[in-house]
Queue: 3 jobs
Job 1
Amino acid sequence: MRYANVDGVRAEAQPKVRGVCRSCGGEVISKCGAHVVWHWSHRSLTNCDHWWEAETEWHRRWKDRFHESWQEVILRDELSGEKHIADVRTGHGVVVEFQRSTIEPAEVAAREQFYQRMVWVIDGSKNEFDCVNFSNSRSGVNENAMARFRWSGRSKLFQRWHSTKPVFIDFGEDHGFWRICRFDPKSKEGVALLVDRDMFAAALIGAETDFSSGGGPASTF
Ligand SMILES: [Zn+2]
């Protein structure tokens, strides 16, 4: 995690400091090596948020597009007491999950159920073949910045993110940032919208949209 409480104050990790997890209250230790993104790590294996994944530069670059107070927001279900840490929750109540590691469809569904108003931003550049395969499998963009594609890659990237909430895949600087508007797992055909990263963040910050209109890739053609 990026933030923990140190002497009761929300703080980023600094070398050789201990803090308290803002979610579970457990002790956390700063990890500030030369080859890792500086972060806080639980001192002992805990029952803290099992949805949390180790952060990379990719996560931090995205989170930094949003105000600090919107990052790592702890949300609690009043009925069940279940607690999770949203990567970003805008002041307008939209959760943005930046996901790099693969998660099972059941967990995707559980997170969507928990967060309700949310969008996914997936790191599609984790696998360089996915970037190239996507560029090769799509048409050029039309006047509305839309492209059709037929997924020919071996990975299950699109099958895995066959979600009901809006899904954006970041294929890196060379291959673009795309909203996956539709995807049919049987035919492997889909429709994607080329999106400007700055405009995406600005739209969420300004509450111009929560991107719920049109739904996710699983919405019907
Ligand atoms: Zn914790």
Job 2
Amino acid sequence: MTAPPPSTPIASSILPLDALFNNPLFAGGIGLASLGAAAAVARRTVIRGASLLKRRLLIDVEISKQDPSFPWVLAYLSQPRPAGGFVQSRLTRMHHLSMNTASRSIHNKPLHAQFLLQPGYGKHVIRVQDAYIAVNREKHNTANMQTGEPHETVTFTTLYAYRHVFEDIFREAHQLAVQAREGKTTMYTVEHTEWKPFGEARKKRPIESVILDQGIKDRVVADVKDFLASQDWYVDRGIPYRRGYLLYGPPGSGKSSFIQALAGELDFGVSIIDLSQRGITDDKLALMLTKLPPRTILLLEDADSAFVNRRKMDADGYNGSTVTFSGLLNALDGVAAGEERIAFLTTNHIDRLDEALIRPGRVDMTVRIGEATRYQAAEMWNRFYGDIDVDGKGLERFLKRLEQLELIAGEGKHTKTKMSTSTAAIQGLFLFNKNNMDGAIEMAEGLIPRKYVPEVQQAMKVAA
Ligand SMILES: Nc1ncnc2c1ncn2[C@@H]1O[C@H](COP(=O)(O)OP(=O)(O)OP(=O)(O)O)[C@@H](O)[C@H]1O
Ligand SMILES: [Mg+2]
């Protein structure tokens, strides 16, 4: 009796597996599958690791279009590097650029255009010191409800270790913006419900170029400077730190020019609201005053239109879509009125204004900027012809002629003349006769205001 041979069933039970593993196709499959699984795990780890790394090692800063630094940052990115040349911009890899063209006319040459390449939408890489920074400019598919403009952001991303470069970037961007504004006066106007710079910042108008009657300019400038120097005084006494000025007088007497020059002198901007403009409502006025750009003079032009509207409202109960009297008063000293502010109001019609407006706290100083006086005519002459009229004979003749025309009083006299002219008209006459004194004197008759012309012609006919 021999023992049965080792049972094959066991072997055979192993066999299929063996056979399976020995099967190169199958083994390859397993290999591939496990490789795949390992890859998936690795991938997940990498992703997780990357996001962890990103969280731990990267830092980003997002700047939205609403932020005042947005244009500075774009300008910074467009800055050429010292070496100059097209690809010498800060952007080391530029594939999308956008164009920002500023055109202005200089020295009578037709148009001078300045092209500034800005990073376009998409991703860019810049290098600042030894840090590489990813810059992503994105337009979002949401929009500002008021303006309809799409939201936009610029995001800077870099290694956490290099976060200090952000400070340098923003400091430099700000410095560039300040430099660009140096010697300029920025004018802001209301666009929808935002204050927007109106055109490019203008070259500061020298205050000497605005010629007001003797002493007026000094008085106002001294008052504003004194106000600016006494913030603590107001704060200590719990008085809102505001001051209001009303400049009134005929058109073309230099009211707006003076305010612009004054802003330049103080290194302020000007935020302008034209009260006669349609679309400026009480609500909007109040809203705009709550977010006045810093370091600007508020200029409310044509203050009388608010009073005209009141009258209209009294008459028919309808107050149009423009500012009303109470809206203006509220804007000046109501709850919406900002804490710190210098406001200038201008009007051609002081008679239409209400006593209530000229109350301290609303308007603290009222100044008439009037028709051209003898003093102003002489000062303007000297500004235009001072260098060719060396002996002053031309000035003498010019003033004599204006006296004859009864446009200015005689020397040393303060009598009111029958007619008068504006400083704007004198400027016009001088501009027309640039470097031609005689021409200006001959054409002085043109300074007679149009409403008097028929009368003057009649008188001349009678005389003849
Ligand atoms: N006193 C002045 N000194 C220098 N330039 C003047 C003066 N008055 C007017 N001008 C010139 O005349 C033009 C019009 O002046 P401006 O707009 O300042 O007048 P305004 O008083 O504001 O007039 P309006 O009441 O119509 O607003 C400007 O080009 C300005 O340079
Ligand atoms: Mg004006």
Job 3
Amino acid sequence: MNVITVENLSFRYRRAKEYSLRDVSFEVRRGELLGIIGPSGSGKSTLCLTLNGIIPHSIRGDFSGEVIVRDPGTGEEYNTIETPVAKLSTVVGLVLQNPESQLFSMTVEEEIAFGLENLGLDRNEIMRRLRWVLEVSGLKGLEKEFPPNLSGGQKQRLAIAAVLAMKPSVLVLDEPTSQLDPLGRNEVLGLVLLLRKEHGITVVLVEHHTDYILRFADRIIVMDKGSIVLEGKPREIAEEAETLRRLGINLPPSLEISYELKKRGLISRLALTEEELLSGIRSL
Ligand SMILES: Nc1ncnc2c1ncn2[C@@H]1O[C@H](COP(=O)(O)OP(=O)(O)OP(=O)(O)O)[C@@H](O)[C@H]1O
Ligand SMILES: [Mg+2]
């Protein structure tokens, strides 16, 4: 079942000369982790903004085609152009590229409760959700902290927690680790995997760390100049290493090395991870 269906979507920001999205069509399937990669300026963030209606409701421009969001709980379908962002946000949660821009409260718990109060939920339900997201996001004990004082990884987990509290079926994360050190990066990506495995949340993840996407995504979309240029399973995308390189996408060393070894007929299978590379080399 598709939770999001995008059909022939094109978008040009107001006053921009060029289209930032050009005839984009794809679907997000329930329960999957869909990875999106592509060079800077290829339209990844713009695409994310269309998935919960911020484009075209809050950011305007020339919009054509459609984005249909389906609530897997009720089976109801919403065309984003006809549905307010507040409604769409309860199905599709979007964590923006820069988490600082999303945090504005005095404490961690206020930050999380803010969106819930706006939903008009009663006090008990707010408390229940607050406890749940503090627990899953690993922020328990930090309820009274001032968000700017948190570490990078904690800030990003808070941004995710605040969105998660709305109980969306789909979580869209736009480069959640781009400003983090390796430790913070592991914290955040670990949370994403947990949400997917243990809470059944569908994930759309824009990530320039291609190694993670190749290892954990079910499917990958590659964007360039506002269009989808490749779509497939990680192994299918890895086979296109030369195209990825040409687009300026960083490839993980295990893929680079195995690609060269395979080209020379030394191994038969590309390695998506270091473990696969090692076992390939050991069998030489
Ligand atoms: N608010 C805006 N107004 C006009 N043009 C914009 C706006 N935001 C983005 N663009 C343009 O749209 C295109 C796609 O930008 P977008 O931010 O979606 O790319 P991206 O793939 O997310 O890049 P990055 O990897 O750097 O985050 C770029 O050419 C960019 O300059
Ligand atoms: Mg971006």
